[in-house]
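ping. complex inputs:
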Amino acid sequence: MSTLPVVTTVRELQAQADAERAAGRRIALVPTMGALHAGHLSLVTEARRQADVVWMSIFVNPTQFNDPKDFEGYPVDMKRDLALAAEHGVDLVFSPLAAELYPEGAQTWVEVSELAEPLCGASRPGHFRGVTTVVAKLLLAARPHVAVFGQKDFQQCAVIRRMASDLGFGVEIVAAPTVREPDGLALSSRNVHLGPEARRQALALVRALDAAEQAVAQGERGRDALLAGVHAEIGQASLAQIDYAEIRDPETLEISPGQLAGPSLLALAVNFAADGPGQGAPVRLIDNRVLTPGPAA
Ligand code: AMP
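pong. complex structure:
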């Protein structure tokens, strides 16, 4: 039996945060939407390195889903999540109902502009507005010293870091490395929706990132040549359709120059058709790699 405390109201969480702070303890928050996997649990390990108490929020945030079907189909298993959180040393779970974070009549949004426009911002309108709004609410509720996010969602980390800094939350935003399956596929709650053939073909993402990294290591600097390689690799997967494949500045997320001059973010989003008829909506996977050109020869 788990004795993990589960808090459901903002008021109670704030009271707990005040008590921890008064006792001089550092709080780390790991925000999640549940359906926990080893990627989420690695954030808990990182949070433990950063703080004395580790809190996890589990909340499937309705406002960040631009597609209602995606929201309805999002995997939920609270019992399993609580057991995993307890097993991995989480000290408290915050699991509010939607009405707690979005009270009747709520009309306040937190929105980051430029950083949230390209990539996932362009293909999922309103997504980052939902993310920044809910993360702001979670930070106000948990009052953490540090909050840990996954680098798999690279743009999300950039957008949240900007928001936390712009609004003076006084919280450190830590980005932790992507956890992968043994064959390289980034862990994602959406992977459960991949049929067996789509799961095999999903490795095209990793192959494309690897090929680009290797090309850069061998001296390729041309942005378009690198992207052509990505398209060729993913083009071999018959179930895959590229949503975006772009190379951008990792700080500003502006499009990189034609010849890469420094560290550059290769960001991919690919839709995989369900294998076989009637097996549901396409599964959208994202992954990224920071390409680091060495000094010019
Ligand atoms: P989610 O529940 O999918 O919203 O993700 C919650 C947090 O886990 C976010 O900060 C994600 O970036 C992070 N995350 C998701 N997948 C991974 C992964 N494979 N490795 C590391 N962190 C991840």
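The pocket of adenosine monophosphate is lined by residues 32-33, 39-40, 42-43, 149-150, 152-153, 176, 178-179, 186-189 (CB under 6 Å).
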